[in-house]
């Protein structure tokens, strides 16, 4: 594993923070098994893994997350009072998350969503006016190949079809016109595909 090799080479660094936002949309194999990095904290005491449950479970408004680290680091945080208060809704979700069968049920839904998301990206890739870059998240980077400006394309998709996409004009390192599009429910993805095809016809 390249990450493990990198951590070994950075053993002299006091704190290595690994943000695993969106990792639930990534996978290890064709069975869409979840990538598990938590065990690395036992081997590398300088590693701190940050988990964004808001992103992993699609509950952005709740703002819930947690960190995984060595017992010594947890003890130091508790001793110094570094606890983040959660809202009532956040606490309710955490109680659901702690249920014995929660993750098994969620994992089945997660795999189904990944399957539909990858199918959505493959369908988008059939539109000749765009290039869809590979993604293991629930959103894809799309390059406009027909000469459209990203701002104009985003505005047209919003005004004519009610579909919001994000322009990537502010992203450093992208040469060309790019937008970012997120996968949603199957029916909504179908609507987005047809809308994009229609947009390019116009």
Brief description of this entry?
By secondary structure, the protein is α+β, with helices and mostly antiparallel strands.
Kindly list the characteristics that best describe this protein.
single chain; 202 residues; alpha+beta; 4-stranded antiparallel β-sheet; 8 helices; 43% helix; globular
Description:
The protein is of the alpha+beta class. The model has no long low-confidence stretch (mean pLDDT 89). 43% of the residues lie in helices and 15% in strands. The strands form two sheets. It has a four-stranded antiparallel β-sheet, with helices on one face. A three-stranded mixed β-sheet has the order 1-2-3.
Order of helices and strands: HEHEHEHHHEEHEEH
* Number of discrete helical segments: 8
Largest sheet: 4 strands, antiparallel
Calculate Rg over CA atoms. Answer: 20 Å
Which parts are unreliable, with pLDDT below 50 for 5 consecutive residues or more?
none
Distance between the termini: 47 Å
SSE map:
Blueprint (H helix, E strand, L loop, with lengths): L1 H8 L6 E4 L20 H4 L3 E6 H4 L8 E4 L2 H9 L8 H10 L4 H23 L5 E3 L6 E6 L5 H12 L4 E2 L10 E5 L3 H16 L1
Parallel strand pairs: 1-2
Antiparallel strand pairs: 2-3, 4-5, 5-7, 6-7
Helix pairs in contact: 6-8
């Amino acid at each position: 594993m390249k990450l493990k090799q990198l951590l070994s080479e950075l053993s002299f660094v006091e704190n290595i923070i690994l943000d695993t936002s969106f990792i639930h949309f990534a996978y290890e194999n064709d069975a869409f098994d979840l990538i598990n990095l938590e065990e690395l904290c036992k081997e590398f005491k300088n590693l701190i893994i940050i988990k964004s449950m808001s992103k992993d479970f699609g509950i952005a408004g709740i703002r819930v997350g947690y960190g995984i680290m060595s017992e010594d680091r947890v003890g130091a945080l508790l001793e110094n009072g570094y606890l983040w208060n959660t809202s009532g809704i956040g606490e309710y979700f955490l109680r659901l998350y702690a249920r014995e069968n929660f993750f098994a049920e969620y994992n089945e839904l997660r795999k189904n969503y990944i399957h539909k998301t990858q199918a959505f990206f493959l369908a988008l890739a059939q539109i000749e006016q765009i290039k869809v870059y590979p993604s293991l998240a629930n959103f894809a980077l799309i390059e406009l190949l027909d000469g459209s400006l990203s701002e104009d394309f985003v505005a047209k998709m919003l005004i004519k079809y009610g579909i919001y996409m994000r322009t990537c004009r502010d992203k450093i390192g992208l040469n060309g016109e790019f937008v970012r599009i997120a996968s949603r429910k199957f029916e909504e993805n179908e609507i987005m595909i047809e809308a994009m095809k229609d947009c390019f016809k116009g």
